[in-house]
Design brief:
By secondary structure, the protein is of the alpha/beta class. It has 9 helices and 6 strands; from the N terminus they run E-H-E-H-E-H-H-E-H-H-E-H-E-H-H. The relative contact order is 0.20.
Length: 192
């Protein structure tokens, strides 16, 4: 089985996440894309409660049979480290001779060298990078650049932080998230 893990805070999950995941799914012929919401990202302190982020993610990916959600980081609790997740999923697939990739955005790649056991991540799976506007490969150390794969996908100017800021300023986010996610944010008054 060939799977791609897509980790993140997903606060909220947006159209950009879904478009990138579907495009990578098709381009790389994955059997599935597995979204892995972080329980507590190591680099963020102000985040929406995990139960809300998980519910929004379920709503966002529900209608796509190519997408699944793993709650491995939520069940593990504590700070969510990619290496722990990759090694756990790899151990689960060991018997089925599975192949794992890990999808990140180029914004995350900028700090990748500081991730816990970054070299072990590169040795454990293929890291696929979705390029975001403004990204410059010259900012990335060569030991990382030589081990990653850039995804050939459209670039999107959508970010979760921008969505939260727009919501706070009473600006529309309607076409940045799916309608059910928009309704969930509105009903639960998540970003006020």
């Amino acid at each position: 089985m060939k799977i791609c893990l897509f980790g993140g805070t997903f606060d909220p999950p947006h159209i950009g996440h879904l478009l990138i995941a579907q495009t990578v799914f098709e381009a790389e012929n994955f059997d599935k894309i597995v979204f892995v919401p972080a329980y507590q990202p190591p680099h963020k302190t102000e985040i929406t409660p995990v139960k809300n982020r998980l519910e929004m993610l379920k709503i966002a990916v529900d209608s796509n049979p190519n997408f699944e959600i793993s709650d491995v980081e939520i069940k593990r609790g504590g700070v969510s480290y990619t290496i722990d997740t990759v090694q756990f999923i790899k151990s689960q697939l060991a018997e089925s001779d599975g192949e794992i990739s890990y999808l990140i955005g180029s914004d995350s790649l900028l700090d990748f060298q500081n991730w816990k056991d970054a070299k072990s991540i590169l040795n454990s799976c293929q890291v696929i990078v979705a390029i975001r506007p403004g990204f410059r490969p010259s900012d990335i150390p060569s030991w990382i650049l030589h081990r990653i794969q850039f995804a050939n996908i459209p670039r999107f100017e959508i970010s979760s932080s921008n969505i939260r800021h727009r919501w706070i300023k009473n600006k529309t986010i309607r076409y940045m998230v799916t309608l059910p996610v928009w309704e969930y944010i509105n009903k639960n008054n998540l970003y006020s």
